[in-house]
Specification:
With about 180 residues, this protein is α+β, with helices and mostly antiparallel strands. The protein has one domain (about 5-155). Helix content is about 30%, strand content about 20%. The protein contains four helices and six strands; from the N terminus they run H-H-H-H-E-E-E-E-E-E. It has a three-stranded antiparallel beta sheet. A three-stranded antiparallel beta sheet has the order 2-3-4, with no helix packed on it. It is extended, with a radius of gyration of 24 Å. The mean pLDDT is about 85.
Length: about 180
């Protein structure tokens, strides 16, 4: 992506909010039993105390908590199956794998992507190849460059079966038989 300075100032707090929600949900999700209060309910209850959360899209915190739930579910499933799996890690702050996910109202234009609360961000590549319904947009930063990854649901036609005679070869034969027609 090629964001303006104003858009960069909106992207950075979105990453920070996702990280904050991920770390804030840690005590709730790390328990090996299901908590009485879901992490997302606890996050929504604490939001009024932190007014800076309202400057970014609500999806940033919600999706971060969903990723945290997936991380712990995969951890406990792997342990139950007897595999050696690592415990989920905290997200680092200083520019390593900074990302957040947005679901819902992202739109694609010929040379830009429209993200909620951020606006229409120009892209360096053409986005005309994305046809279909956008499921989610993951915005990430690497070396102070911003990237967007889109998950797109595309309608595809059922493959047509091949029409023609069937030929098969048995791999266990040492010599092949020739048919009467050659």
């Amino acid at each position: 992506m090629d964001p303006t300075e104003q858009q960069r100032s909106l992207l950075a707090p979105s990453v920070g909010t996702a990280r904050y929600a991920f770390h804030g949900g840690w005590p709730c999700a790390s328990a090996c039993w299901m908590p009485e209060i879901p992490c997302r309910t606890q996050w929504n209850a604490e939001k009024p105390q932190r007014s800076w959360v309202y400057a970014v899209s609500p999806c940033c915190g919600q999706e971060a908590l969903r990723e945290l739930d997936w991380a712990f579910a995969n951890f406990w499933r792997g342990r139950k199956e007897g595999r050696r799996v690592g415990f989920p890690h905290f997200r680092r702050k200083h520019g390593r794998r900074d990302s957040f996910r947005l679901t819902g109202s992202s739109k694609v234009h010929p040379r830009s992507v429209s993200l909620p609360r951020i606006g229409c961000v120009r892209t360096k590549e053409t986005t005309e190849k994305f046809r279909g319904r956008i499921l989610s947009a993951t915005v990430s930063r690497e070396a102070d460059r911003w990237y967007v990854s889109l998950a797109v649901e595309v309608e595809r036609d059922d493959p047509q079966p091949d029409v023609g005679p069937v030929a098969g070869i048995d791999r266990g034969l040492t010599s092949f038989a020739v048919l009467s027609d050659g």
